[in-house]
Design a protein that fits this description.
By secondary structure, the protein is of the alpha/beta class. The chain is 51% helix and 13% strand. It contains 16 helices and 10 strands.
């Protein structure tokens, strides 16, 4: 099955709504599901999402409150937070159309199990090949049809190419890859690094410090990625370096904004504004997994320590600057 006549987007937040619009522009009928029946009724009536004010929902997008109906699609995009993916997958197991691929559109690693999200899908939904969509993209840009390019990865190269072709539209370009692990790692690690860059910005450490954090943070991402089976060329691409550069320098990034709030001196609850950024959940498991493989990630460790309240921003900066001099690698 490669024509994907029907597509479902599970999760009607800003990113889910943006992807639904993009799929509709690629000439697909799209079911957009959310748990909140009131939200679905509102979107149906107003053709607009409260998460993306001023952006019209495309005519081929059909808000849907029934998960059973939404699950009966040729292709399913899972756009719930990474830590909620297992719950969604278990709910989908008896409902999804046999063999329908599951495209993972959130970025993170499951806490507790330390499993990559594609492995969660393989465990909970055997027979439904997982794919991963990641890259430099803000929901507001994609939803409005501004030019955007991302990566779609699946273990089967033909499947990756088919899904990428199905979702590509006039302003939404998908490159395909079979490096699922590399694409997942780029998305998960860059969120933690974006928090670090936001902290530096909020503390007023300057543009030079921000550039250094991006460069040295990228080195950490690559070291971790290689240790866990990702390919170097993937990290140099859209889902690695491209996404890192975008997320580490814009207030549109929730992770950057969260870090910037921490950098100004706000506490965790105030900085989160009702919900932690994905990178805040990923930081601890990322650091634990890095240590298990003997991978040095001092910037990510500093971010994790700040979030956990074990060290203040100034102490973390002092510790990073006091590290022994070494050759750049």
């Amino acid at each position: 099955m490669t024509n994907y006549a029907t597509i479902s987007v599970l999760g009607a937040g800003a990113w889910g709504t943006a992807l639904a619009n993009a799929a509709a522009r690629a000439r697909h009928d799209v079911a957009l599901w959310a748990r909140d029946a009131g939200q679905i009724a509102e979107m149906t009536a107003n053709r607009e999402s409260r998460r993306l004010p001023g952006v019209k929902i495309e005519a081929r997008v059909h808000p849907e409150a029934s998960l059973a109906k939404a699950a009966a699609a040729d292709l399913i995009l899972a756009v719930v937070p990474a830590q909620a993916t297992r719950e969604l997958a278990l709910a989908l197991a008896p409902l999804a159309r046999p063999g329908a691929p599951i495209v993972l559109c959130s970025k993170g690693i499951e806490r507790g199990s330390a499993k990559f999200i594609s492995d969660v899908i393989a465990e909970c939904l055997p027979g439904h090949p997982p794919a991963v969509l990641s890259g430099p993209s803000f929901a507001a840009d994609v939803s409005r049809g501004l030019p955007t390019a991302v990566t779609l990865a699946a273990q089967n190269e033909g499947l990756a190419q088919a899904i990428a072709g199905a979702l590509s539209g006039p302003t939404f370009r998908l490159y395909h890859s079979n490096d699922v692990r590399g694409v997942e790692i780029g998305g998960a690690a860059k969120n933690v690094l974006a928090i670090g860059c936001g902290i530096a910005a909020g503390r007023g450490l300057g543009a030079s410090a921000g550039a250094a954090l991006i460069a040295r943070g990228f080195a950490e991402l690559v070291r971790f990625g290689r240790a866990y089976g990702g390919r170097a060329e993937t990290f140099m691409g859209l889902s690695g370096l491209g996404d890192l550069v975008l997320t580490c320098g814009s207030a549109q990034s929730r992770n950057f904004s969260f870090g910037r709030a921490l950098g100004t001196g706000l506490g965790l609850q105030e900085a989160s504004r009702g919900g932690l950024a994905e990178g805040a959940y990923t930081a601890s498991v990322l650091v634990t997994m890095a240590r298990a493989k003997g991978v040095e990630m001092p910037i990510c460790e500093a971010v994790e320590s700040i979030i956990a309240g074990r060290i203040g921003v100034d102490g973390a900066v002092e510790a990073l600057m006091a590290r022994p001099s070494r050759a750049e690698s």
